TrEMBL record:
PANTHER family: PROPIONATE CATABOLISM OPERON REGULATORY PROTEIN, TRANSCRIPTIONAL REGULATORY PROTEIN. This is Sigma-54-dependent Fis family transcriptional regulator. Residues 372-605 form the Sigma-54 factor interaction domain. The keyword Iron does not apply. The keyword Transcription applies. It comes from Mesorhizobium montanum. CDD domains: AAA. The lineage of its organism: Bacteria, Pseudomonadati, Pseudomonadota, Alphaproteobacteria, Hyphomicrobiales. Pfam families: AAA_lid_14, GAF, HTH_8, Sigma54_activat. Keywords: ATP-binding, DNA-binding, Nucleotide-binding, Transcription, Transcription regulation, Two-component regulatory system.
Length: 691
């Protein structure tokens, strides 16, 4: 049945070329009814939750607009708003200009050519950054002047979180060219405008870095406005690609002139000023996989590191991720400024099969290290020691100490991953606290048929034999009976195991990883653990820090478990309020990482809403325990403060955690301006992406 077209609706395939268009005209192939759209907006505001749940939406409201309205109302946007937020702070505008210099430079040619053509058309062309903040505007002078009434000018913030449905913010959200016309806007004060925005993507990694938008009063609408801004965005992307190619060439030239000892067989990665790989040669894919930031072609576009502001060799070396610290790093400067770095992986002569094995071991080692989530210095130091042990052929045993629940088995698996010579190298784990005293000898060393009452008729190998060629993990080794300890020491010294009841020795090649939550030195002093065995297994030891000693790692682990549990359940991750984060950071975590994981699982099961508030946390976290910790100033220090810079860095990290990464709130909490905060973040190399 053909729908009748009312007096306020017009079905038009080609809009007439005239200066003014009525509100009843069509947006492309979609009917647009000004009054009906306004009624739908008013009905939506009257009962937004019901409208969002209702699968049936009005025919005259596009699903893109309907969805954006819902995001706007649930995000707390004032529907009666008349303008976008505007920053007039000179420092912040200067920072915006400086941080978006490449985007502005790439857009200059397109904006210069279009700016002259827009005069007298009633239209303006604006450029926004990845946060929807306007950094440039050209076009009709009257429209530019009128645009300031709604803060559609440099410094105005036009993402959906700030002003609801609009061409810039909605294009950022969808990642596609988008138009929003008149009554389709969410805020009442901008419903007399029409806008079409197209995202601009970085040619290197595909991330959205800005939006180009054509705006004006609603009569300027044409169906091809969207095509115009999309074409302009592509021109800007092309200019960006040219700029990046020029920088890539200059960085390569800078490297060649500063690295005379480089050999063609060496592996080489050049990173730009953002720490992204822009050139790779002779580098196995595994060497740059861990820190990749999205599915890209091998090598190029992957984020590998944060370049320090100082650019010194020492700071560059510290900034390297753990799995890249075997390379040689060289700062690359252009026109006196640090613009990149060269990572050189010296080639090691070896037969091809050995190289293949080395690559596989390195890949397994990286995968195992990635399972240990955290960035605190104590944890990274422990990971570094475990990785060195794993790569060393001379260390045959390792002692891992730490409280219950800190993740000691992950370190044992890290050693196994780095020790593997074949895919079938075994990893055998036994908890000494779960074995009865009578069965220890049989479990460790095995037995022959009929060796004792209840022995297997065929005999049985012990875990040492089962772990031959691989790693044996003995958890809670402090529970090992005193009378068994001399036999374990003998096996470790002689590398030969004797089954119970058998005089024949069986050679074993086993790397032992022992772990305990006890203080073995005290156990030795008390006579419950042999000193010779302690010094044998503890020649190299790792102290895995308790969770309460790891500072912001608590937030990283919450995010890690939150996303993993949500993905397994097919749900969206939970969100945490600032008060909840404060309580979680202040809690002492006696059960460590295991307790935190169990808490996140519990919250996913029991939470009634998607945002976790303070009252949703267990009583020991949101009440007494938190108060006790805050009453002890020493307990609030997550790491030793040795200088004013240390204190300032820690204060910024604490504020970021407390405010969930919201930089405006962080600046307010610290009593500094946002530009100052930006400078401090760069100065101390602090990232907020995990929050």
């Amino acid at each position: 049945m053909k729908r009748e077209i009312g007096p306020n609706q017009m079905k038009i395939d080609a809009l007439p070329a005239r200066a003014s268009l009525t509100a009843g005209q069509i947006l492309g192939n979609i009917d647009y009814d000004e009054r009906a759209t306004m009624r739908a907006w008013e009905d939506f505001l009257a009962d937004a939750p019901k409208c969002a749940r209702d699968a049936v939406r009005p025919n005259h409201v596009r699903s893109l607009i309907h969805d954006s309205w819902y995001r706007s109302v649930t995000g707390g946007i004032n529907a009666q708003g008349i303008e976008a937020p505007l920053s007039s702070d000179r420092d912040e505008i200067e920072y915006l200009t400086r941080s978006n210099a490449e985007l502005l430079s790439a857009a200059r040619r397109s904006f210069d050519s279009l700016g002259q053509l827009l005069q007298g058309t009633g239209a303006m062309l604006v450029l926004a950054d990845s946060d929807g903040v306007l950094i440039d505007a050209i076009g009709d002078k009257k429209t530019l002047h009128d645009g300031m009434d709604i803060h559609l000018g440099i410094g105005g913030k036009w993402n959906e979180d700030a002003v609801g449905t609009n061409g810039i913010g909605t294009a950022l959200w969808t990642g596609e060219p988008t138009f929003v016309h008149a009554a389709e806007h969410f805020c009442a004060g901008i419903k007399s405008w029409t806008c079409a925005g197209a995202p601009i993507r970085d040619p290197l990694d595909g991330k959205i870095i800005g939006v180009v938008d054509l705006s004006g009063y609603s009569p300027i609408f044409r169906p091809h406005n969207t095509a115009l801004v999309a074409a302009t965005a592509r021109q800007i992307e092309k200019a960006l690609a040219e700029q990046q190619q020029e920088q890539r060439t200059r960085l390569l030239e800078a490297f060649i002139s500063s690295a005379p000892s480089y050999r063609r067989k060496d592996g080489l990665v050049i990173v730009d000023h953002r720490g992204r790989a822009i050139f790779c040669n002779n580098v196995p894919n595994g060497d740059t996989t861990d820190m990749m930031d999205g599915p890209m072609e091998p090598g190029r576009g992957r984020w590998l590191m944060n370049l320090p502001a100082s650019g010194s060799d020492a700071d560059l070396a510290k900034a390297l991720p753990t799995h890249l610290r075997s390379c040689q790093v060289t700062p690359l400067k252009l026109d006196g400024d640090l613009r990149g770095a060269a990572l050189v992986f010296p080639s090691v002569p070896a037969v091809s099969s050995a190289m293949t094995i080395s690559r596989e071991v390195n890949k397994h080692l990286q995968t195992a290290a990635a399972m240990i989530v955290g960035e605190s210095e104590k944890l990274l130091a422990a990971v570094d020691v475990a990785s060195r042990v794993a790569r060393s052929n001379g260390v045959t045993s390792l002692l891992i100490e730490g409280e219950t629940g800190v993740g000691k088995e992950l370190f044992a698996r890290l050693v196994h991953a780095g020790s593997r010579r074949t895919e079938n190298d075994p990893f055998i784990a036994m908890n000494c606290g779960a074995i009865t005293k009578e069965l220890f000898g049989s479990e460790l060393f095995g037995h022959v048929a009929g060796a004792f009452t209840g022995a297997s008729r065929e005999g049985k190998p012990g875990i040492f034999e089962m772990a031959n060629g691989g790693v044996l993990s003995l958890d809670e080794i402090g529970e090992l009976p005193l009378e068994i300890q001399p036999f374990l020491l003998r096996v470790l010294e002689e590398r030969v195991v004797h089954r119970i009841g058998d005089s024949r020795g069986r050679p074993v090649d086993v790397r032992l990883v022992a772990s305990t939550n006890r203080d073995l030195k005290q156990e030795v002093a008390a006579g419950r653990f042999r000193s010779d065995l302690y010094y044998r297994i503890g020649a190299v030891s790792i102290q895995v820090p308790a969770l309460r000693e790891r500072g912001d790692d608590i937030l990283l682990l919450i995010e890690h478990f939150n996303r993993r549990i949500a993905a397994l359940a097919g749900n969206k991750p939970l969100e945490f309020s600032s008060a909840a984060f404060d309580a979680l950071l202040a809690y002492r975590w006696p059960g460590n990482v295991r307790e935190l994981k169990n808490l996140v699982e519990r919250l996913h099961i029991l939470a009634r809403v998607s945002t976790i508030e303070l009252q949703d946390l267990p009583g020991e976290i949101n009440a007494g325990n938190r108060n006790n910790i805050h009453s002890d100033p020493a307990a609030m220090l997550e790491e030793p403060v040795c200088s004013f810079e240390d204190a300032e860095r820690q204060a910024i990290k604490n504020a970021l955690a407390a405010e969930g990464g919201n930089l405006s709130k962080v600046a307010l909490r610290l009593g500094i301006s946002r530009p100052t905060l930006y400078r401090k973040l760069g100065q101390y190399g602090i990232r907020r992406g995990f929050l």
